[in-house]
Amino acid sequence: MMMRRTMLLLVAAILAVVAAGCGNDKGTSGSSPSVALPDGPIEIGMAIARSGLAAPYDLGPARGAELAVADINAKGGVLGHPLKLVYGDTKSDRALGTTVALDLLAKSAKVMVVTCDFDLGSPAAIAATSKDVVAFTPCAGSSQFDVPTLGPLAYSMGTEAGAAAENVAQFAYDQGYRKAYLWLDPSISQTKNTCAAFDSAFGAKPDAEVVGSDTIQQQDTSFAVQIAKVRDSGADVLELCSYNPGAGAALRELRASGIDIPVTSHLAMDGNYWLKAVPNLSKFYYDAFGSLYGNDPRADVNTFFDRYREKFGEPAVTSYALTGYATIEVIAKAIESAETTEGAALAKAIDGLGELDTILGRTGYDAEHHIVADRPSVIMSIDNGTFDPVATYVRGAKSKVG
Predict the structure, then answer these.
(1) 101 CB contacts (<8 Å, ≥6 apart)?
(2) What PANTHER family does this protein's entry cite (predicted)?
(3) What is the pLDDT of residue 36?
(4) Do the domains at 42-159+298-375 and 162-289+378-399 have one common CATH topology?
(5) Which residues sit opposite 81 in a β-bridge?
(6) Nearest alpha carbon to residue 25 among 103, 105, 95
(7) Where are the beta strands (DSSP E) in 65-129?
(8) CATH class of this structure's domain 162-289+378-399
(9) pLDDT band for position 35 (50/70/90)?
(10) Are residues 175 and 222 in contact, defined by beta-carbon separation less than 8 angstroms?
């Protein structure tokens, strides 16, 4: 409750700064219900991290967005207008998020794409929505990236962290695990959402229990105390609610200590870029948007990653790239429907698209829900450094895709 009050106060403070610094332009909420499309390209602002801690998470979605823009423009654009991505670098800095977004708006951005994290992406989203511009994060999973906190013009293409954690909890239970231990990095909203949802979902299952929990921090240099508690708990699975580089460091020390129980985790652990920290890692599972390795159960996902490699000369780092493509798909369809980029009208169009077929599968929003909960989680396994999709879950139930 304290965190939520603090976040709401922060939102109000940023809104006040934006309003004081920029005034109320024509086209903000309450003004004319329609704004004509611009002559020439429709510019989409990319207020994302191109450097710093969040850059690895934003790179893939940005490139996925570039592939989508190329595909849409090759078919004539949107209502005859080409799409154009205009970049700014937030440098993974919350304060710069507001500045970068406002600069992109001044350069005629009509829709805003922000960093794949609530804590780092929300300042840019608030800057955009306060100027009646729709803001999308491609992959933030925090439940706070939704209408109650950020208002009706902010959207996430990400899978809501609690829904994804329910899928992982069901997978763990289906594997026969009955005693879970939790490691929580409390530094961001998404990891807190994840651990809370896993705790609730797993603990509610017959004969299952969460036997303990502990906190780990990005700046920790030793995890000996936490590891000793896991060893004494009798846990048969460890749920890791963290992100890199801290998560990799914790895993390395866990395995070096001789504890080899299975570890489950979440989207922030997608990709193989961090595996050098834990050579020959096995018994590790996490949910992903899809497999990067040519073995996804959906042919179009495998084709996407082939195209990504061909276009950019290297493989995608994470499956987050899919979310960038899907974000542009939704934005383009909504502009086509609304025939405007004016915020309220565009949001109404997004909410009215229903379940739209995207590269991520069927994706939809309504006026009360601007983050996705019903999307399939592809459970990935790492065994001796090899990645394989082993199951798919939706809303805590095993499913089939492809």
Answers:
(1) 45, 47, 88, 112, 114, 123, 124, 125, 127, 128, 135
(2) LEUCINE-SPECIFIC-BINDING PROTEIN, PERIPLASMIC BINDING PROTEIN OF ABC TRANSPORTER FOR NATURAL AMINO ACIDS
(3) 75
(4) yes
(5) 78
(6) 105
(7) 83-89, 111-114
(8) alpha beta
(9) low
(10) no
User: How many Å apart are CA 292 and CA 320, to the nearest integer?
Assistant: 10
Both structure tokens of 214: 């502990």
Place of tokens 């006026």: 367
Single out the residue of 274, 211, 203 nearest to residue 245, CA to CA.
274
Give residue 20's pLDDT band: very low, low, confident or very high (50, 70, 90). Answer: very low
Q: What's the start-to-end Cα distance of the chain, in Å?
A: 41
- Residue 200 is predicted with a pLDDT of 97
CA distance 44 to 84: 6
- Report residue 234 as tokens: 């009798």
Fold of 42-159+298-375: Rossmann fold (3.40.50)
Dist. CA 249–CA 152, nearest whole Å:
39
Tell me how far apart the alpha carbons of residues 49 and 217 are, in angstroms, rounded to a whole number.
22
Q: What is the pLDDT of residues 319-332, one digit of tens each?
A: 999 999 999 999 99
CA dihedral (253, 172, 326, 371) positive or negative = negative
Task: Round to whole Å and give the CA distance between 211 and 374.
Answer: 29
DSSP 264: E
Q: In this structure, what token pair is assigned to residue 225? A: 């105390």
Q: How many CA atoms lie within 13 A of 150 on its CB side?
A: 29
Q: What percent of the chain clears pLDDT 70, i.e. is strictly above it? A: 91
Using alpha carbons, list the distances in angstroms from residue 101 to 89, 123, 129. 9, 9, 10
Rounded CA gap, 179 and 335, in Å?
49
| Own/partner pairs, 295-301, CB within 8 angstroms, 24+ separation | 295/388, 295/389, 296/378, 296/389, 296/402, 297/378, 297/389, 297/392, 297/400, 297/401, 297/402, 298/361, 298/401, 298/402, 299/402, 300/359, 301/359
DSSP code of residue 48: E
Mean pLDDT for all residues in the chain: 91
Q: Is 196 helix (H, G, I), strand (E, B) or coil?
A: helix
